[in-house]
């Protein structure tokens, strides 16, 4: 077990400046001051999935799936069977007369699908020799089926029997799947979102039909999420964020993150330093039903469902692209990046008076368009009333490679995975110190003191 002193609260204008907390300074809100390194993988760890209140599974490019106890850091199971990298992983819960049993479904570049028992480590079912590798998985518990997406859309029952399938119409294949109300499914394919209808017959057979094609994005869709029962959202490689109606599938709001180029950028030597297209890309979207948090390049942007506008942002939140995000509440959030860091943020009001702002710092959003063809003139962020900022509250430095994602177990801790082949279990250092002291006192009491 290691003790770690981490950067705390600061009020600087860029996230690059996060000094280590010194003795006597104000204590940060970051409670994750103790870490435990978990080893077992020998390649990039890309996926984490929570199994229950005390276990998670990790998977990545080595084809291994490892099951961990997040309370102790113990490696519980090694699931071996895939010969190539894991491309998708999810949980599926089966009900019996007494208990709920949670299993793992994995997909791999070896063109196979597997069902695992995380309690024993056994592979219960496997499907080999698929036409292509599966890129995404979606479990529909209430219909007792699950779906796989890749070069085709397949529907399977709990016994791993194929119910139906449909080819897609995109060279990139299906990259994301989400469930919509009334037995509908949304699938991201390149620049389009396909809406499918699932029908379950009296004999439990399932059929799938293509209902609508949503083609409002101008570039490849990188993220697709459910917001709540009424909305879903998608984000593209060129920074488009679209809010959709989940039952009628019409476009409700369209926001585009823009990089404004001044006339000085016409000079060749300055143009070389202009932002790359990847810096506009939406790598990840997350939501709590009220807000949408978008990871755009190395920045973070918070979008309000109610007001249909950006309410807070940080243009440079990390040194490199942000890969994963999470909204802890309506005012707190977390992000991880290719730069190897995990950062905690708080939404705060801008200081008064505000610092002078150039168009390059604020002029990157266009607002208020209900569609791309028409609408009022775009407004700069500085013109939006009540705009707020993201203030850095804590910096978790432990990984030496890009942090791919993280899973929160609330008071039990936080698990991160990285390109450095490691997982790190982050815990509340003060709480862990109290627990160790309590355990020591109990042992002393049992032994009758020193």
UniProtKB/TrEMBL annotation:
An example Gene Ontology biological process: regulation of autophagy
SMART domains noted in UniProt: WD40
PROSITE patterns the UniProt entry points to: WD_REPEATS_1, WD_REPEATS_2
Keywords per UniProt: Repeat, WD repeat
A Pfam short name: Beta-prop_WDR41
UniProt cross-references to InterPro entries, sorted A to Z: WD40/YVTN_repeat-like_dom_sf, WD40_PAC1, WD40_repeat_CS, WD40_repeat_dom_sf, WD40_rpt, WDR41
Source superkingdom: Eukaryota
A single GO cellular-component term on record: lysosomal membrane
Coiled-coil features, chain-numbered ranges: none
Keyword Repeat (UniProt): yes
KW ATP-binding (keyword) present: no
WD repeats: 57-78, 79-126
Designated name of the protein: WD repeat domain 41
Native source species: Oreochromis aureus (Israeli tilapia)
């Amino acid at each position: 077990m290691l003790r770690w002193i981490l950067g705390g609260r600061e009020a600087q204008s860029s996230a690059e400046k996060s000094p280590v907390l010194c003795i006597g300074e104000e204590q940060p809100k970051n409670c994750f001051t103790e870490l435990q390194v978990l080893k077992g993988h020998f390649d990039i760890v890309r996926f984490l999935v929570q199994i229950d209140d005390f276990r998670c599974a990790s998977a990545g490019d080595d084809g291994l799936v490892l099951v961990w106890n997040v309370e102790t850091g113990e490696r519980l199971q090694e699931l071996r069977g895939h010969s190539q990298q894991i491309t998708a992983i999810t949980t599926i819960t089966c009900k019996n007369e007494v208990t709920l049993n949670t299993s793992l479904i994995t997909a791999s570049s070896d063109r196979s699908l597997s069902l695992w028992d995380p309690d024993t480590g056994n592979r219960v079912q496997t499907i080999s020799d698929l036409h292509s590798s599966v890129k995404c998985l979606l479990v529909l518990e209430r219909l007792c089926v699950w779906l796989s997406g890749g070069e085709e859309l397949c529907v399977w029952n709990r016994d791993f029997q194929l119910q139906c399938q449909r080819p897609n119409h995109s060279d990139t294949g299906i990259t994301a799947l989400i469930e919509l109300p009334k037995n509908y499914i949304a699938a991201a394919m390149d620049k389009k979102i396909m809406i499918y209808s699932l029908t379950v017959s009296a004999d439990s057979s399932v059929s799938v039909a293509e209902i609508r094609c949503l083609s409002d994005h101008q570039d490849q869709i990188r993220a697709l999420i459910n917001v709540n029962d009424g909305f879903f959202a998608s984000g593209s490689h060129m920074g488009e964020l679209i809010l959709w109606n989940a039952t009628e599938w019409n476009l409700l709001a369209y926001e585009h993150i823009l990089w404004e180029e001044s006339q000085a950028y016409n000079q060749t030597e300055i143009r070389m330093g202009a932002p790359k297209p990847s810096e506009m890309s939406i790598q990840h979207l997350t939501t709590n039903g009220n807000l949408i948090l978008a990871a755009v390049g190395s920045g973070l942007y918070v979008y309000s469902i109610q007001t249909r506008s950006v309410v807070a942002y940080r243009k440079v939140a990390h040194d490199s692209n942000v890969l994963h995000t999470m909204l802890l509440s309506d005012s707190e959030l977390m992000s991880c990046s290719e730069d190897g860091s995990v950062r905690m943020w708080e939404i705060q009001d801008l200081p008064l008076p505000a610092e002078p702002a150039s168009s390059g710092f604020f002029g990157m959003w266009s607002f208020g368009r209900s569609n791309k063809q028409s609408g009022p003139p775009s407004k700069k962020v500085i013109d939006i009333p009540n705009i707020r900022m993201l203030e850095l509250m804590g910096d978790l430095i432990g990984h030496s490679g890009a942090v791919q994602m993280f899973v929160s177990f609330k008071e039990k801790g936080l698990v991160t995975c990285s390109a450095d082949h490691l997982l790190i279990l982050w815990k509340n250092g003060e709480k862990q110190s109290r627990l160790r002291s309590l355990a020591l006192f109990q042992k002393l009491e049992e032994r009758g003191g020193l």
